[in-house]
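lol ok so funny story. i was supposed to be doing the assay writeup but got distracted and ended up predicting the structure for this chain instead. priorities right. anyway since i did it might as well share w the group, maybe its usefull for someone
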Amino acid sequence: MFINPKTDFAFKKIFGSQQSTDILISFLNAILYQGENTIVDLEIIDPYQSSRIKGVKDSFLDVKAKLHDRTTVIIEMQVLNVLGFEKRVLYNAAKFYATQLDIGDGYTLLSPVIALTIIDFEMFPQSQKVISTFALREKEEMTSYCDDIELVFIELPKFKKSLDALESLSDKWIYFLRNANKFQSVQSSMEQEPALEHAFRVAERAS
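and the output, tada:
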């Protein structure tokens, strides 16, 4: 029996523990880099995001990681569509980006921030895309201004593929998030991916 990975405890246990770096690397490569081994290493760090500025609201994230290229990924699993949620995502990304520097630091020291949000509801009903990525672009010509802040959303209800229809690594990870708690054993197609098999084992222990 496997725990539901969408619950707060399970999600942090599977993706955010110090023993889960291989799981998180595989998941991020699948979702952010189309399955390419772009991320070779990362450090899972404290997801509590206190503010350096007096009076500014603190943030509580599910998982936070620093990649080998200094990019920070902040990850949140959200089951309910609460009021102001879309603003909260932007707030967390912008706040972390803005609070990287100390007095006297140059702006060139700023590192990219990716806010990856997994949601168990439809946020963009006008689109059929399961994974959506947003960045700063010129409105008419779509010229890139800067990719230092990216917002990535995975809308779980839009993913309709069956186990036999899974093609990519991202398919398998999204299927895992949606259906892991429905299985009694690890499916053979999942066992072929070491990080996925590890994730199932963590979900089994966590249950």
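Residues 8-206 form one domain. The first strand starts at residue 42 and ends at 45.
back to the writeup now i swear
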